[in-house]
Amino acid sequence: MNLSTFLAYTTAGSLVWASVLASAGYLLEKNYTTVGKYIDPTAETIVASILVVYVYRVVTHQK
User: What does pTM read for this prediction?
Assistant: First the structure.
């Protein structure tokens, strides 16, 4: 893939992602803290899982 095609796809994807996040923030308005009660534990579980897998890989890595 050449550079101009890559930049075009990256720009389009970034615009879509930013629009989705901005729309979600606008729609949530005052319910942000309520939604955060459900999303925060899920995000913490995902981050902890990734950390456990990473530490396992580092500990069991053979040179």
Answer: 0.57
